[in-house]
Design brief:
Blueprint lengths: L1 E2 L3 E4 L16 E5 L3 E6 L2 E5 L10 E4 L3 E7 L1 H4 L9 H9 L3 E7 L9 E2 L2 E2 L8 H8 L4 E5 L12 E2 L5 E2 L9 H16 L6 E6 L12 H19 L2 E4 H4 L15 H16 L18 E5 L19 H10 L7 E5 L17
Parallel strand pairs: 7-8, 7-11, 11-14, 14-15
Antiparallel strand pairs: 1-2, 2-4, 3-6, 4-5, 9-10, 12-13, 16-17
Length: 355
């Protein structure tokens, strides 16, 4: 870019490739033209005659498909180097027609903000990344949460030293509220102006006694919650527990993917994204269902949103969340919920490798 008092010349994609591979993110089409933008008397001019002097390719920006990767430390990239997390690798695999953003936060649960012992400081609902994910207005949301919620069900774990490991999270949250919270998480994203495609992931194998994470709790407690809620809500499912199961893909902590594992995780998610989404053309949007509803009594620990709030288009995501996730849900009130009628099409991959 060359700047002057009255002229700015913009060079974009200065390679003679004729394709989009050398364009920056968000740019997919190139033309053999150079732009000169003249800033004179508040007017903007475009000149193409200088193409005879300067030869280059000017790229025209096109709309990208925005992908929000919502999750815990598996998404955030715990234990990995710079640009080794799975969302970064997913961006590389999907290419410039997609914009993939990492909204993962280590240690987070999908459980609500209040647990039996008080404030749940590990609630994803409280994080800035949750707010950022909403304001990102994604076209696709990949939800990878639940590993840390298994701590509510992990007990009697014997460590490598042969001693019982105390888990302070055990029994601190009721299972029925986890159903409500995961449902609310789906609903919150579903009501964004973009009406995004939502993909829920069954949690992968994890086993770390010292952290209170046991695979038996994931298999018997958490993944059934995710499976049931996602199926009922009609969102797609990727079964990471069946697909992401090769020991060589894990760090020594037996929870987080290593660099190779992050690549494999990105590949699995990419396959799910590129697969045709579930056909919901015959379904009724949740915001327009007049009669399909159920009144749910909530407890202080739930984060279910008030589902009879309509017409979110034009509102910023932060306002949506403040009004419908926080003001109405933490008072123990009864909230009206309305659901669209959707059929589930799980994206369950064939099992690869062995535990």
């Amino acid at each position: 870019m060359i700047n002057g008092p009255q002229m700015r010349v913009v060079f974009c994609c200065m390679r003679h490739t004729g394709d989009s591979q050398n364009c920056p993110p968000g740019v997919t089409t190139c033309r053999s033209v150079i732009y000169i933008v003249g800033m004179m008397f508040g007017k903007v001019f475009r000149a193409t005659a200088v193409a005879a002097i300067f030869t280059g390719l000017a790229c025209t920006a096109s709309a990208q498909t925005r992908v929000a990767c919502v999750g815990n430390s598996i998404t955030a990239g715990y234990g990995l180097g710079w640009q080794e997390d799975y969302p970064f690798r997913l961006q590389e695999m999907l290419g410039n027609s997609y914009s993939v953003q990492n909204f993962g936060v280590s240690g987070m649960t999908f459980a609500g903000e209040i647990i039996k012992s008080g404030t749940n400081n590990s609630s994803y609902w409280k994080t800035d990344n949750f707010k950022a994910a909403l304001n990102f207005n994604p076209d696709i949301v990949v939800i990878e949460l639940g590993t840390n919620d298994s701590k509510f069900f992990s007990n009697n774990c014997i460590g490598t030293d042969g001693q019982p490991q105390y888990n302070y999270n055990y029994g601190q949250y009721d299972k029925e509220n986890l159903y409500k919270d995961y449902e609310a998480l789906i609903d919150t994203f579903a009501h964004l102006p973009t009406s995004p495609r939502i993909i829920a992931t069954l949690q992968p194998y994890s086993n770390n006694c010292g952290w209170g994470i046991m695979d038996t709790a994931i298999v018997n407690q958490i993944n059934p919650i995710i499976q049931e809620v996602a199926t009922r809500k009609g969102v797609e499912i990727i079964d990471l527990h069946a697909e992401f199961n090769t020991p060589a893909w894990f760090l020594p902590d037996s929870v987080h993917p290593n660099a190779t594992g992050a690549m494999e995780l990105a590949r699995i998610i990419k396959e799910g994204i590129l697969k045709a989404p579930a056909d919901t053309s015959g379904n009724t949007p949740a915001d327009t269902v007049p009669a399909v509803s159920d009144s749910t009594g909530t407890q202080d620990s739930t984060t279910a949103i008030r589902r009879n709030a309509r017409n979110f288009a034009g509102q910023d995501a932060q306002g949506l969340m403040d009004r419908d996730a926080r003001r109405f849900d933490m008072q123990g009130r009864t909230m009206q919920k309305e659901y669209g009628r959707r059929s589930a099409t799980p994206l369950v991959h064939k099992k690869r490798g062995a535990n």
